[in-house]
Amino acid sequence: MTWFFAVLVVLLMGAVAVVAAGAGGSMAEVYDDRPDSRVQADGPLTAEDIRTVRFTTALRGYRMSEVDALLERLATELDEARADAARADAARANVARANAADRQGRPETEEGH
């Protein structure tokens, strides 16, 4: 019985070696089936861009380089948007302070007097 399993293992290993050597026929031609990223390469991202983006899958999931590049871009744009908002808030606060100081320096007139 042991000899039977030994012969079976040797035959199985031989069959694997024959297939690995290409005797079983060749594989299909390789082609790039990855879809192009649907996010524009330059300019600001829109919410619709984020909703429609699709990443290609690799052996163990998504291509990390594509995901990392998009996340870095999103982080940069978010930082820029927050900085712009902070500058706009500061400008509005300066205008409000200037208007308040302007009102305190001038007496208010009543209409009709």
What report would you give on this structure?
The protein is built from 3 helices and 2 strands; from the N terminus they run ααββα. It is mainly alpha-helical and about 110 residues long. It is rod-shaped and about 110 Å long. The N and C termini lie far apart (about 120 Å).
Strand segment count: 2
By secondary-structure content and strand pairing, the structural class works out as: mainly alpha
Number of helical stretches of at least 4 residues: 3
Q: What is the radius of gyration?
A: 34 Å
Mean pLDDT: 79
Instruction: Determine the strand fraction and express it as a percent band.
Output: under 5%
**What ranges have pLDDT less than 50 throughout 5 or more consecutive residues?**
none
Oligomer: single chain
| Overall shape | rod-shaped
Order of helices and strands: HHEEH
What's the story with the biggest beta sheet?
2 strands, antiparallel
Compact description:
With 113 residues, the chain is mainly alpha-helical. The chain is built from three helices and two strands; from the N terminus they run ααββα. It has helices at 2-20, 47-52, 64-105; strands at residues 57-58, 61-62.
Can you lay out the helices and strands and say which pair or pack?
Layout: H1 2-20, H2 47-52, E1 57-58, E2 61-62, H3 64-105
Q: What characteristics describe this protein?
A:
mainly alpha, 2 strands, two-stranded antiparallel ribbon, 4% strand, 113 residues
